[in-house]
Amino acid sequence: MMRKTLQYILWLVLAPLSLLAGYLLAGDRGTAFAVGALVVLSLLPFFLRFEKAKHSAAEITVLAALVAFAAVSRMAFFALPGVKPITAVAVLAGVFFGKEAGFATGSLSALLSGLAFGIGGFTPFQMLSWGFCGLLAGLLAPLLKQLVPLLIYGGASGILFSLVMDLWVVLTAEGGFSISRFAAATATSLPFTLLYALTNILFLALMRKPVTRIFGRLQRKYGIFQASHER
Q1: Which of 12, 32, 186, 215 is deepest in the core (most CB within 10 A)?
Q2: Which residues span the domain enclosing 184?
Q3: For the segment 50-77, what is each residue's pLDDT rounded down to a tens digit?
Q4: How many domains, in total, are found in the chain?
Q5: pTM of the model
């Protein structure tokens, strides 16, 4: 526990220092690069932790299936930019299989589906935001097993994802960050943000019962990801 606390403190110290160093070295453009680097670096601890953990073949198989399903579900709605079922799948993975599974499902499905839609500077931001939605769902799992809190969280996750991507748009378009540009970006994307939040709620409402039945059976039969809930 103490080691984790020290890691968080170190991150809180290094993050603003990295941003300041980037700005001093290259102005606004340096800030954009520094933010991108922080996003990439923030993904590494979760993947390293998951890699070091002991997972059974059944757990790896289930996780691979979740990532593939989330990625394919995004491809199925490619014609509708504001409709992305990845969030719902990552949230449910986090609720039932723990924060690590939720983060891995969200981040890896963003990377996998990116092979079809294209991979660029936005990809790490997508990986981080979808992964964080799954991770936080795992931390709030006891609460989110109830329908109403789950749906509220689904809507909030859609808003969070859109805000993160608006941040990426501002950084790449202008080379730096300003409140006015960020406000303009969020206002422009508001229809997509609302659509994404509403469709997250819809997907979670439709998927909750069958997923509860299927995931619950997997846990009872194979005991998968039990350790993730105990940590």
Answers
A1: 32
A2: 56-230
A3: 666 666 777 788 888 888 888 888 888 8
A4: 1
A5: 0.76
d(CA 209, CA 212) in angstroms, rounded, equals 5
Q: Which of 79, 88, 78 is nearest to 113 (CA)?
A: 78
Alpha carbons 103 and 124: distance in angstroms, whole number = 13
**Pair of tokens at residue 61:** 């198989």
- CATH number, domain with residue 113: 1.10.1760.20
- Our CA angle for 166, 103, 130, nearest 5°, is 20
The answer to whether 78 and 117 have CB atoms below 8 angstroms apart is yes
Taking the alpha carbons of 29, 35, 38, 43 in that order, is the dihedral positive or negative? negative
- C-alpha span between 197 and 206 (Å, rounded): 15
Q: Which position has the token pair 């039969």?
A: 221
Inside any domain, residue 193: yes
